[in-house]
Specification:
The complex is a heterodimer of chains A (about 650) and B (about 425).
Chain A: H1 2-7, H2 15-32, E1 38-39, E2 45-58, E3 62-81, E4 84-98, H3 100-103, H4 105-108, E5 117-120, E6 125-128, E7 153-155, E8 170-172, H5 192-196, E9 207-217, E10 223-231, H6 261-264, E11 268-278, E12 285-293, H7 314-327, E13 329-335, E14 339-343, E15 349-354, E16 364-373, E17 376-386, E18 391-393, E19 417-421, E20 424-436, E21 441-456, E22 464-482, E23 486-502, E24 507-510, E25 513-516, E26 522-531, E27 539-548, E28 553-563, E29 568-579, E30 585-586, E31 612-613, H8 619-626, E32 633-641
Chain B: H1 2-17, H2 25-32, E1 50-51, H3 65-72, E2 78-80, H4 90-98, E3 104-105, E4 112-113, H5 132-141, E5 145-161, E6 167-179, E7 199-209, E8 217-223, E9 231-236, E10 241-244, E11 274-286, E12 288-289, E13 311-312, E14 318-319, E15 322-335, E16 342-350, E17 358-363, E18 368-377, E19 393-401, E20 406-415, H6 428-434
The chains are: A mainly beta (about 650), B alpha+beta (about 425).
Chain lengths: ~650, ~425
């Protein structure tokens, strides 16, 4: 229904005009006047950068991004200093203004959302937020709607699916200074300015890079290289997937999984030491790298509820849950699995987020040995770090039972009340690349085995469990002439297969539903890139395909790059999703946390389990591609480099 | 009769693989100092002569076919300079003498035996020798092209529409070359160790401008064993990752230019990838000159006063240089790979330096596709640091795609300077370290 309403007003934001006008204006401005980089007379100081407009429009939504970026990249070479053969400083500064929060504020800004209804298939059919079929007046149920009114809300997952008898929740979607409901302090609590200007925050994110680099030769001929400051440390050989490239957290709010990692890695204050041995008696090239991430922990930015890009729509789920704990909330089809229910505060939801404080023991350390042996590139990697993705542990010890008048403030097994943790993860892995002449192909392999990751698990009283995880990517690159498309220039064909195996996976079929860990025990995502070049590489069309095998969800992303001049580049593209979207899983409505009120038997009794829905755990089965099925986009990006 | 034929063929093959018994010190002198007794002559060709559309027919015999066509069309002209000797470094010549009688081809293409350093086959090539082309290819591969090492620092490439003259793109590079083996001049001699992979040579390329390709780096490792495929890696700044390249990409347009990686320096590939045929020795005009005697470009003038070669004529695709009448070996190479984008190259190899100043490239249908010209500057009339290095300095290039009417021109600042080319610059790790 929600989708249908929107479908009646396609293009109401004149998205294509928006997408084209600003870049066209910039093109006119910059074609006429060549800005220039700066290099000092002695060549030791260099400054360059770019300005960019990225305008994206989403089907049935209108403008989803109008990001205007200015980036300055500079380096200063200090030459030889003391024992160092060379010392230099590198700085990158980025400022962004995303006008979508002004131009489409009824979708993503101060006017976003509105009043919502909650499904109640066993009751009145639907009921307004705060006026569920079970509400104030029934035992301890109900919440203060003056604190938590029916405004500025959307139904969780409504862009993707109807409630269909499952759990439904309401998500406050306005910036946190406009509506603080569900905002998680120091994690997903962005106010309007922080959403519009994401680099300007208390973590100084406008400093994309600021590090000192020093090289120290040794008598053996090897060199030490030290790098200290805010930086990105890139491991691995894989595009798109993060198997070994996990040292820096990532900002998925910028464009979900689709931006270059270079642009979405969140730089951290780190120290690296590299011992570069060069060729040895055995290896063609060998080096060791030590990485110490001493920055205060930062999780990946998953995108806040109400922002245009949120991987797995997890930020919306978290915001809905945080609001539930803090203020109470309406939930569709809950009581008896069919009746809308107004939960009071401190019953279900997310209570606290435990972001690791800064301490030596919370810092992160990695070591990599990398080299080349007879044409085989290799690396061996080890890293101990804090998970950049949150784990929800149902270990809250101050929850209330709404069926009783007393405020219990205690722990209940299987209660969907969580604290958010970021567990320590230990990773070992490695990578290879090699060339196979017979088929003119390069192969890339990357693997990682982790211990300490945590996953939702509805079979456990704490509703989570730990699992070792084995991830791998096999990549294949082949330049290939396709004469009927271009006789003179080969196309790059590149395919990757990403696999994830949860070693300690647990799942059961119970009374016709699946319960346990919603993530697939073994799943694969395949990608394929075909890229061509015309007009002396000034025009480059490409198409990227990605397919999640278990989620049955795909992305098709065609684009064309046009290098208008040495400075000006226009990219026009689309991102189209096909396949299945939302998927169902045990939603724990029948987990029986408050026996005998919620059922006979003990908490978690499997005999009671028979309810599944899209929310909240189906997202882990749909994956990032499936969860974004409603986000078809047309994209125009204009970048002027100087 | 059949036995006789088999025996005859076997005998010829054996003869071809035997050490070059005929090579003598006199051959070495003739090879390295061909103009000691006089320079080539052709009626009417003398320093100062300008060959243009009006008189080109008269000099057809001393101009390669593509250049003849260009001049006939009125696209460019040739200004003749005095033929001068480009003496290679005496250590390289001595290494050639030291190897006399010790070097021979292996049984298979791409195999050589007994080679230490210098020019492997200094004797005059014979049309009767079925493997003469291969020997010339070895002489080129082990030539003193850039000496033991050198850098082109910086190196401007410009993409141009030949019809309109529109400058489409300017890329600024640094190129670095280092020989790991067969070194004759700069320590360590004769080989940089450790060298577990058995590298013969490495090329490292760094793109500096414009900024969409800034931090792009290319590394090519060529093995001593010619039968072993090159290794190549590309560092892309926007990915901050090193990608191993498939060898097919060496036949692809390098960064959108008209030049393949395989075209670098005239030919940048394995001997075994091609079938080599010696087509004869000729005296023709080739782009050899004294850089400091030219009228040079005011654009990109360096702080030390160095000026690059000027480009001009049709589409600004032609280096404004002088040409010398010199002895060349015409050498044809045909790819063994049926999927190779070209059908053949015809190289005009300078007999004295074994550099390749002119190459004509033919497409798969056999039509002329590209004209590849690398201007050679005398080191004693170039940067002061190059004086006495005995290196014929690559100094200007133009690659003209005659079918697309497009060209890529190159302006060099070649520097024979070991300090610019330490061996650790030629490692995969250096790509990561130098990238951002």
């Amino acid at each position: 229904m929600f989708l249908d309403i929107k479908k009646q007003q396609p293009g109401r934001k004149r998205p294509v005009i928006h997408a084209a006008l600003l870049p066209a204006t910039l093109a006119v401005i910059f074609c006429g006047d060549q800005a220039a980089a700066y290099t000092s007379d002695d060549g030791s100081l260099q400054l360059n950068g770019f300005v960019e407009n990225a305008t994206y429009t989403r089907r049935h939504v209108g403008l989803s991004k109008m990001r205007n970026t200015a980036q300055i990249e500079g380096s200063k070479d200090y030459g030889a200093q003391g024992p160092f053969s060379n010392v230099s400083f590198v700085g990158t500064f980025r400022a962004t203004y995303d006008a979508v929060y002004d131009l489409n504020d009824d979708e993503f800004g101060n006017k976003a959302g509105g009043p919502i209804n909650m499904e109640s298939v066993g009751g009145s059919g639907t009921s307004p937020w705060g006026a569920s079929n079970i509400s104030t007046g029934t035992l301890g149920f109900g919440f203060d709607t003056t604190q938590n009114p029916n405004e500025g809300l959307v139904n969780l997952g409504s862009a993707l699916h109807e409630t269909e008898g499952g759990v439904g929740m309401g998500v406050p979607v306005r910036p946190c200074d406009k509506d603080s409901r569900g905002c998680i302090d120091d994690y997903l609590d962005f106010d309007e300015n922080e959403l519009k200007y994401p680099e300007f925050n208390d973590r100084l994110d406008f400093l994309r890079e600021a590090y000192l680099d020093a090289t120290m030769p040794t008598e053996s001929g090897a060199t030490w290289n030290f790098r200290l400051g805010r930086q990105q440390v890139v491991w691995g050989r894989t595009d798109l997937f993060r198997v070994l490239d996990v040292i820096n957290p990532v900002d998925f709010s910028r464009h979900n999984i689709y931006d270059e990692l270079e642009d979405i890695r969140i730089p951290m204050w780190m120290a690296t030491g590299e011992y570069r041995m060069g060729a040895t008696e055995t290896f063609d090239d060998l080096n060791m790298q030590f990485v110490w991430n001493f920055d205060k922990f930062r999780p990946s930015n998953l995108g806040q509820g109400g922002s245009p890009y949120a991987i797995l729509d997890a930020g919306s789920f978290f915001r809905a849950m945080k609001n539930c704990w803090d203020n109470g909330c309406s939930v569709s089809n809950f009581a008896g699995g069919a009746i809308s229910t107004d939960f009071p505060k401190h019953v279900i939801g997310i209570r606290d987020v435990h972001l690791p404080d800064w301490s030596l023991s919370n810092s992160q350390f990695g070591v990599k040995m990398e080299g080349d042996y007879r044409g085989l590139g290799f690396s061996l990697n080890a890293l101990t770090y804090r998970s950049q993705l949150p784990s929800l542990r149902a270990v809250v010890d101050t929850a209330d039972n709404p069926f009783t008048p007393a405020i219990e403030s205690q722990h209940y097994d299987y209660l969907i009340a969580f604290d958010m943790h970021f567990p320590r993860v230990n990773l070992i892995g490695g990578s290879l690349d090699f060339y196979v002449d017979d088929i003119k192909s390069v192969f890339r392999v990357e693997t990682a085995y982790t211990q300490g990751e945590e996953f939702a698990n509805t079979l456990k009283p704490e509703l989570y469990s730990e699992s070792d995880v084995f991830r791998y990517v096999v990549g294949w690159d082949r330049p290939t002439f396709i004469p009927f498309l271009n006789e003179r220039r080969a196309f790059l064909l590149s395919a990757q297969l990403f696999g994830q195996y949860l070693v300690d996976h647990e799942r059961q079929d119970v009374n016709g539903i699946e319960a346990g860990i919603p993530d697939w025990e073994l799943n694969h995502i395949g990608t394929f890139l075909m890229k061509g070049w015309y007009k002396n590489d000034r025009v480059s069309p490409q198409i990227i395909l990605a397919h999640d095998f278990k989620a049955h969800a795909s992305t098709i992303a065609p684009s064309v790059d046009w290098l208008i001049s040495d400075n000006l580049r226009l990219t026009v593209g689309a991102n189209i999703k096909v396949g299945d979207g939302a998927q169902k899983f045990d939603d724990c409505r029948a987990c029986n946390p408050f026996p005998p009120f919620t059922g006979t038997g003990s908490p978690g009794d499997l005999a009671l389990r028979n309810l599944a829905g899209f929310e909240p755990l189906g997202r882990f089965r749909s994956g990032p591609i499936g969860m974004a099925q409603a986000e078809d986009e047309f994209q125009v990006t204009l970048r002027y480099r100087f | 009769m059949r036995l006789l034929n088999t025996t005859l063929v076997a005998g010829l093959l054996i003869a071809a693989t035997l050490p070059a018994h005929s090579a003598t010190n006199e051959d070495v002198d003739n090879s390295f100092y061909p103009y000691s007794k006089g320079v080539p002559t052709h009626e009417g060709v003398k320093a100062g002569l300008v060959i243009d559309q009006s008189n080109v027919e008269k000099y057809k015999d001393v101009i390669d076919p593509a250049m003849f066509e260009f001049i006939s069309q009125g696209w460019t002209k040739i200004t003749v300079g005095e033929t001068t000797s480009f003496d290679l470094h005496p250590n390289y010549v001595q290494a050639t003498r030291d190897g006399l009688g010790k070097v021979k081809l292996g049984e298979k293409s791409g195999e050589i035996e007994g080679f230490v350093a210098g020019r492997p086959f200094p004797e005059e090539p014979s049309m009767d020798d079925p493997r003469a082309g291969e020997k010339l290819a070895w002489n080129y591969k082990y030539g003193y092209n850039w000496g033991d090492n050198a850098a082109i620092y910086p190196f401007y490439w410009k993409y141009k529409d030949m019809n309109s003259g529109k400058l489409e793109r300017t890329i600024k590079f640094n190129f670095h070359f280092l020989n790991f083996k067969h070194r004759v001049n700069q320590e360590p001699l004769p080989e940089i160790t450790p060298n577990p992979a058995g590298l013969f040579r490495a090329i490292y390329v760094q793109a500096l401008e414009p900024f969409d390709v800034k931090d792009t780096q290319l590394l090519i490792h060529r093995y001593e064993n010619d039968l072993k495929r090159d290794n190549a890696w590309l560092y892309l700044g926007f990915q901050r990752r090193v990608r191993r390249l498939a060898s097919g990409q060496v036949t692809d347009a390098f960064l959108g230019s008209d030049v393949m990686i395989e075209d670098f320096e005239g030919y940048n590939g394995r001997i075994n990838d091609m079938e080599w045929t010696f087509k004869g020795a000729r005296n023709i005009l080739v782009p050899f000159y004294h850089h400091n005697d030219l009228t040079l470009s005011e654009e990109h003038k360096e702080k030390d006063g160095y000026q690059f070669v000027e480009m001009g004529d049709k589409g600004n695709c032609f280096p404004q240089i002088t040409w010398q009448l010199r002895k060349v070996f015409e050498l044809e190479n045909k790819p063994k790979d049926a999927n190779h984008p070209i059908s053949k190259r015809v190289h005009y190899i300078d007999a004295q330096t074994f550099t390749i100043p002119r190459t004509l490239t033919y497409d798969r249908k056999g039509d002329l596709w590209k004209s590849w010209q690398i201007g050679q500057a005398h080191p004693d009339h170039h940067l002061p640091k190059n004086k006495g290095t005995g290196v014929a300095v690559d100094d200007s290039f133009t690659m003209i795609d005659v079918q697309a009417m497009h060209c890529t021109t190159g302006q060099f600042k070649g520097q024979v300077d070991p300090s610019l080319n330490p061996s650790n610059k030629f490692t995969v790790q250096n790509l990561r370290a130098s990238g951002r």
